[in-house]
């Protein structure tokens, strides 16, 4: 038999934990802009709740026909208080935020950042522009007609004249179609790529086998006489490696483990090959999931792009964000360009960024409307593909508690965009994307078909969007922020 007195005591302890966390994080809460204050408080309350496992409590509340606290991210403390009252508590504590105001604040931020939901209440769809979009006016009109509500220009590609033509084309199409569209522009961020060097590797590839030892070198290391040598294009990384750290090449197709580090050279051992052709090629990405990299996320090239971006973009996508300090650095740049309030979308693509997500959001709230992009490509390599579903859900929960819009990105209906036909798993993945506040599709030859299919999938998924009941195990993100941050 479930004792209501015991449940009430557990809920009172949760409430006390929330209030204590608010006191501990008072400086962070007081630092945000006034319009984001209730969001900051709600985020801290939610993380205080999720810093311990309450699955058993949830099941008992559900058995009694009460709220199990699931789907209450946007208004978590008042939900706890209301349950306590149903159990007989005389708690008279009022709250700045209830279920209605929490949902309204989230919706306000979504609309401000991304625009209103499309037909059938589907989240806005973001379309990545290709170079050809600069001159194809009819395609731009078709994109708008079929549901594009956010246009994405990745500043890692093309140049300012091409971007300006894309933007002019977009504005003309928006005017003709009388359909709104936000403009999102990505900072390129640091490029960590392979460079195969040596006379034996003129074709820019290195053949490897399981157990092979290879050398990863800093670009400042000029020697090319080392056998099986791969240069890392970004300076300063190799020195940060330690024995047993994992290193992934080419989106995780090749896994190596650090054996030893000698200054600007590291010896790695190949422990997994997941490619039919065992060749590590030049210009492929490198990931370091176990290494805390000390990298400036704003490159010299990014600084040359920022003046153009602040002139035209509705929001700036910030690549390779790892810490709150990275957000602060971008905010300083925006202040210098007289655009301090430009919306920022933090691209979460590393394990370090996931761990620091609450602090990243709270730093952004000091000056800017914040969004978060789940950059699932690099993130999956960093954290392991088996954890991807779990982590993307955690990001969604934390962001909803902060009333921060989430963009679901990378490989959405990618096979369909390339070949015209989606795989079954991609269709299921696209349905899951309905839990986000915006869905991004990449470049491809079948963008219009992808837009139509995605609209169909999302509209069906949104009908079932609020039916899931979640169990609140302890979140390491929450525990780290509450007890260590």
From TrEMBL:
Its EC number is 2.7.1.40. Pathway: Carbohydrate degradation; glycolysis; pyruvate from D-glyceraldehyde 3-phosphate: step 5/5. InterPro entries: Pyr_Knase, Pyrv/PenolPyrv_kinase-like_dom, Pyrv_kinase-like_dom_sf, Pyrv_Knase-like_insert_dom_sf, Pyrv_Knase_AS, Pyrv_Knase_brl, Pyrv_Knase_insert_dom_sf. Pfam families: PK. Keywords: ATP-binding, Coiled coil, Glycolysis, Kinase, Magnesium, Metal-binding, Nucleotide-binding, Pyruvate, Transferase. Residues 134-442 form the Pyruvate kinase barrel domain. Signal peptide: none annotated. It comes from marine sediment metagenome. One of its GO terms (molecular function) is kinase activity. This is pyruvate kinase. The keyword ATP-binding applies. Residues 4-31 form a coiled coil. Belongs to the pyruvate kinase family.
